[in-house]
Design a protein that fits this description.
- By secondary structure, this protein is an all-alpha fold.
- The protein has one domain.
- α3 crosses α4.
- The longest helix is centred in the first third of the chain and has 29 residues.
- It is extended and about 50 Å long.
- InterPro entries: AminoAcid_Transporter.
- Keywords: Membrane, Transmembrane, Transmembrane helix.
């Protein structure tokens, strides 16, 4: 979010759309690769929808072509897109990977979560609320 705000202040909307489209294509391809890896490594797990592997493999071939063409034609945009993606790595380590956080860090994260919920008018459903009883 912070990176997007900085880009909006510095660049124009079309540049931001190019960054986001590259990021989307990259994430779609990684998701499809994950599907193929799971089908290969864990073929017995339950899947509500199962498609022929030819479909994701064909998608990956087109995806690789589009991504390679994007990297060739606009390497700066792709590089900035990768940097935007990598800004999530410290957030992952601070929020998910680091299990034994001090109480002050947990309080800060909880207050940021509450602030974000109030700002966006969203609340994660609580178990055992009065409506369920």
């Amino acid at each position: 979010c912070l990176a997007t705000l900085i880009i909006m202040l510095v660049g124009d909307t079309y540049t931001l759309i190019n960054y986001v489209s590259f990021i989307n294509y990259l994430c779609y391809g990684v998701t499809i690769m994950g599907l193929i890896v799971l089908r290969w490594k864990k073929p017995k797990i339950f899947r509500p929808i199962k498609v022929n592997l030819l479909i994701p493999i064909t998608y990956l071939a087109f995806w690789a072509f589009l991504l390679a063409f994007s990297l060739y034609s606009e390497p700066v945009v792709c590089g900035v897109g990768l940097i935007i993606i990598l800004t999530g790595v410290p957030v992952f380590f601070l929020g998910v990977y680091w299990r034994n956080k001090p109480k002050c860090v947990n309080r800060l994260i909880e207050s940021m979560t509450r602030w974000g919920q109030k700002l966006c008018f969203v609340v994660y459903p609580q178990c055992g609320s009065a409506e369920e009883e």
